[in-house]
UniProtKB/TrEMBL annotation:
<feature type="transmembrane region" description="Helical">
    <location>
        <begin position="278"/>
        <end position="298"/>
    </location>
</feature>
<comment type="similarity">
    <text>Belongs to the binding-protein-dependent transport system permease family.</text>
</comment>
<dbReference type="GO" id="GO:0055085">
    <property type="term" value="P:transmembrane transport"/>
</dbReference>
<feature type="transmembrane region" description="Helical">
    <location>
        <begin position="88"/>
        <end position="109"/>
    </location>
</feature>
<feature type="transmembrane region" description="Helical">
    <location>
        <begin position="171"/>
        <end position="194"/>
    </location>
</feature>
<feature type="transmembrane region" description="Helical">
    <location>
        <begin position="215"/>
        <end position="240"/>
    </location>
</feature>
<dbReference type="GO" id="GO:0005886">
    <property type="term" value="C:plasma membrane"/>
</dbReference>
<keyword id="KW-0812">Transmembrane</keyword>
<keyword id="KW-0813">Transport</keyword>
<dbReference type="InterPro" id="IPR035906">
    <property type="entry name" value="MetI-like_sf"/>
</dbReference>
<dbReference type="Pfam" id="PF00528">
    <property type="entry name" value="BPD_transp_1"/>
</dbReference>
<keyword id="KW-1003">Cell membrane</keyword>
<feature type="transmembrane region" description="Helical">
    <location>
        <begin position="121"/>
        <end position="142"/>
    </location>
</feature>
<dbReference type="InterPro" id="IPR000515">
    <property type="entry name" value="MetI-like"/>
</dbReference>
<dbReference type="InterPro" id="IPR051393">
    <property type="entry name" value="ABC_transporter_permease"/>
</dbReference>
<keyword id="KW-1133">Transmembrane helix</keyword>
<feature type="domain" description="ABC transmembrane type-1">
    <location>
        <begin position="84"/>
        <end position="299"/>
    </location>
</feature>
């Protein structure tokens, strides 16, 4: 009797343990679960299935053969190897520059006494602007004859560059665009991290007349380390997923001259929609998923070993 009363009392104190409340919770979650299964779980299963076929016809949902030949083709395809090289350039060149610019901008905005909200809005606008629309602007900026980038380079005595038509420069044009397009969100993340830091640390540093650089490396960076690594993980994933920038920079007419600016995601898109090689596209998507998973796990491991969370 006492046990039954105790159970009823526990159910009243903890509604989630009550079967009635649990059923209501699952009913509320049901639409989201259905959407997740239809648009996330089912496509993942289908991708895994199609990637192991030697040939596949999407319209009839029929495949022939079953093995690793699609992966062998993709890994030996020069276009996929170029896509990996370009994506690595975007990651290892673009991500450090983006993080440095975002952190510097966030520090500047956070130091403002007046107009902080105005600058936050200005710097966040690119994030809510269509990438395709911004791509049109960058196509004009990178124009060989009339672009402002070549105009400013002329003041430094540098001849005009063919940013969008030179195969050796097209990937760097995309990298610059990627740096700019990913800047706004990272600024917001850094601002959120900076505002979490207790002001007493800086007040104590001012009392001790600590140099600004020492304040940055001894106070700001250690206390911002968790945010810094989160931004690094998000930046790497965003750089690996580069597609919209390539599509908008070249107007949807391929990935630059001779597909010289192709990325992994653009390769998957091109294989699926343009060439109708669904099994190759699925195999490339699985390889891409494995790369992202490995890098994310590595970053997580590094952050747990070396990052101080506050």
């Amino acid at each position: 009797m006492k046990g039954t009363n105790r159970l009823k009392r526990a159910e009243k104190e903890n509604p989630l343990g009550n079967t009635h409340y649990s059923l209501k919770a699952y009913l509320y979650l049901f639409p989201a679960i259905v959407i997740f299964c239809v648009f996330v779980f089912y496509p993942i299963i289908m991708t895994l299935r199609m990637g192991f076929y030697e040939s596949y016809v999407y319209l009839t949902d029929t495949g022939k053969g079953f093995g690793l030949s699609s992966f062998q083709y993709v890994l030996h395809d020069p276009a996929f190897q170029l896509a990996i090289r370009n994506t690595v350039i975007i990651v290892f060149v673009g991500v450090p520059i983006t993080i440095a610019l975002a952190l510097g901008t966030a520090l500047f905005i956070n130091s403002l006494v007046k107009g902080k909200g105005f600058f936050q809005t200005i710097y966040f606008l690119p994030y809510v602007t269509s990438t395709v629309a911004i791509g049109l602007v960058f196509r004009w900026l990178f124009h060989s004859d009339y672009g402002y980038i070549n105009y400013f380079l002329s003041f430094l005595g540098i001849p005009a560059q063919k940013w969008l038509t030179n195969p050796n420069l097209s990937v760097f044009s995309v990298t610059i665009f990627t740096i700019w397009s990913g800047l706004a969100f990272k600024i917001v993340l850094f601002l959120a991290g900076l505002q979490k830091i207790d002001k007493q640390y800086y007040q104590a540093a001012r009392v001790d007349e600590t140099p600004p650089m020492r304040v940055f490396f001894r106070i700001t960076m250690p206390l911002l380390s968790s945010t810094f690594w989160m931004v690094a993980i998000v930046s790497v994933i965003h750089a690996f997923k580069t597609y919209n920038e390539v599509y908008s920079m070249f107007g949807g007419n391929g990935a630059g001259p001779g597909n010289s600016a192709i990325t992994i995601v653009y390769y998957i898109y091109d294989m699926f929609f343009n060439r109708s090689q669904v099994h190759y596209a699925s195999a490339a998507a699985i390889v891409f998923f494995a790369i992202i998973l490995a890098l994310t796990a590595l970053q997580k491991w590094i952050s747990k070993r070396f990052v101080h969370y506050v």
